[in-house]
């Protein structure tokens, strides 16, 4: 019985090691999609910044063309008004036409001011767009390499998980079903540490001191003994 209990504890510790490794690998694998999405967002954000600058540059060109068209229309109007002034003999009509010419010239002046503002903005955007294109290209290349490594990591993790699962299945061989069931429930509720050492009469799981009777029972190796406080399976290290 003594030897059997030592073997059982050893098997449980081996099983615990495999389960801990398996859980860590599965957690790492589960986190990969979030990591990948975060990297993809960096590329998307960089592309969005570049597209925003390019869109603004296009908007400036469109507005400039519209302003040029508007300004030319006003110049044409002024030319007609001047022609009409030459043809009229009425002071009232002449003054009204002069007023229209003055209003049109003010609009043209306002348009020209706006065109200068747009030209200045367009000049400022050129280096910004150039820098954004360079940054986006560099970031995209760098992040795509990271994403590729994450995909490779995913494959490696899946492979390692498969291997550890096999080792885990092998580790359960020879363990009583009742003991295995208790172990598995404890693994879930005790943060992956169902089997812990008893050192100096203290449970290394909850760090509470156990009774002398519990220590004697653990040392006897006649059965799997649980910590009275936390319920973990106890063993005394060699």
UniProtKB/TrEMBL annotation:
In this chain the C4-type zinc ribbon domain maps to 202-234
Q: Which residues form a coiled coil?
A: 43-121
Key word Phosphoprotein present? no
* InterPro entries, A to Z: CT398_CC_hairpin, Oxidative_Scav/Glycosyltrans, Zf-RING_7
Q: Which residues form the CT398-like coiled coil hairpin domain?
A: 15-188
Question: Amino-acid biosynthesis among the record's keywords?
Answer: no
- Extract the Gene3D superfamilies matched here: 1.10.287.1490
Q: What is this protein called?
A: Uncharacterized protein
Q: Which organism is it from?
A: Terrimicrobium sacchariphilum
